[in-house]
Amino acid sequence: MKTIIVGGGPAGMTAAIAASQGGNSQVHIYEKNEKLGRKLFITGKGRCNITNAADMKTVMDSVVTNPKFMYSAFRGFDNNAIVRLIEGAGCPTKVERGSRVFPVSDHSSDVIKALEHELRVRRVRIHLNTEIKGLLIRDGECRGVKLSDGSTEAADRVIIATGAMSYQSTGSTGDGYRWAAYAGHKVIETVPALVPLEAAVGSIPSGLSLKNVKADIYDGDKLLYTDFGELLFTHFGLSGPIILSASSYVSRRIRSGAFLKAVIDLKPAIDEAVLDARVLRDFEKNRNKAIKNSLGELLLSGLIAEVLRQAGISPEKKVNEITKQERQSFVKAVKNLTFDITGTRGWNEAIITQGGVSTKEINPKTMESRLVRGLFFAGEVIDVDAVTGGFNLQIAWSTGWAAGSEE
Ligand SMILES: Cc1cc2nc3c(=O)[nH]c(=O)nc-3n(C[C@H](O)[C@H](O)[C@H](O)COP(=O)(O)OP(=O)(O)OC[C@H]3O[C@@H](n4cnc5c(N)ncnc54)[C@H](O)[C@@H]3O)c2cc1C
What we know:
Blueprint: E1 2-6, H1 10-19, E2 26-30, H2 38-42, E3 51-52, H3 56-61, E4 63-65, H4 71-76, H5 79-88, E5 93-96, E6 100-103, H6 108-121, E7 125-127, E8 132-138, E9 141-147, E10 152-154, E11 157-160, H7 175-182, E12 187-193, E13 197-199, E14 209-219, E15 222-233, E16 237-239, H8 241-255, E17 260-265, H9 272-285, H10 301-311, H11 324-335, E18 337-344, E19 352-357, E20 375-377, E21 385-386, H12 391-404
Helix pairs in contact: 1-6, 1-12, 9-11, 10-11
Bound molecules: flavin-adenine dinucleotide.
């Protein structure tokens, strides 16, 4: 049995390891870059958040798009399985906050070295600097691939593990989508996800970071997403963990032209009445100051001008001239600081791609096409994605393993 795997990322590498299990197989990886795992190298800020050690229910719940499709693949090759594989190949791991798994060395290169070691031991043939240009499909069967020099290479099975659209300099340029469409597959429109959001943030300085805030994303009156945690203001708008996670639930809507709002509660631990009493006390202490100079204990200085603007209060106004109504508007603004979202950032800032080859036409146990025999898909090219925490790599490992394993 000869298996060709297109793409030497995490999905392609696990597919190759699984495919070489029997011992009799010939397994080839074709990778257009000069080395394997270029995107894997930059994951987790160079530390590689390999997977998440949470229980299977949490892992399933962390999948945003088509979680049910992942059920068999996760069961077949779960978070423990990838940790065993990588540790067995000489790269010990550790578990950090939020059950995130990293290599003990904090170097993604050690994860890549471990996988390369496994590939070598299993005699997988690796063809670097070799770009695949298309598929050989005849009579409803995939029989091999076309190379960029015009030659062809026959195979019994072809696994497309070409990744998606984000961070294109790593090699993910959407080739797999084109081939899937050529093979008759439906490809769900791709949008950048786990991506910062563009918004007009007024005078708030770029780099201002907030911990323990709540962010709600609304489409009109409809609440689309709510989260609690860390948020970052940038020169273009909003970023940070809660915004990146939110983007996975709202990116497609923004891209389709909806006008969404981000509403940030700067003091989520206290309700409006308690906050009002606190503000009143601060006002008592600073009666003769301009309001902009009286809020230092309540708000970071970079936020004061924007909160006052949204509350409709002149920053120069003396505290003893502030009416009860203005104070209440101020309290409302602190609990509902609102920004119009004008877009998402682009592919070069998107950690993942949403959309891809429709799961409806892929067998979830084997990752084989339901339309073309001998054609398989693995990794981000499939229309599956998850929130941050190691779950996207787990999708790549698990679908790669399923695609590589012979039935
Ligand atoms: C900055 C960043 C940080 C991230 N951090 C994390 C993290 O810590 N944890 C996590 O779980 N996820 C993380 N992710 C997401 C994760 O990296 C991806 O989901 C994962 O790499 C997808 O694996 P893949 O094998 O499907 O695709 P890829 O890793 O994109 O690999 C696809 C490979 O196919 C090759 N290829 C494409 N077309 C061809 C062709 N025509 N011929 C030959 N080869 C081809 C490409 O060169 C590439 O090497 C991060 C992503 C980014 C961008």
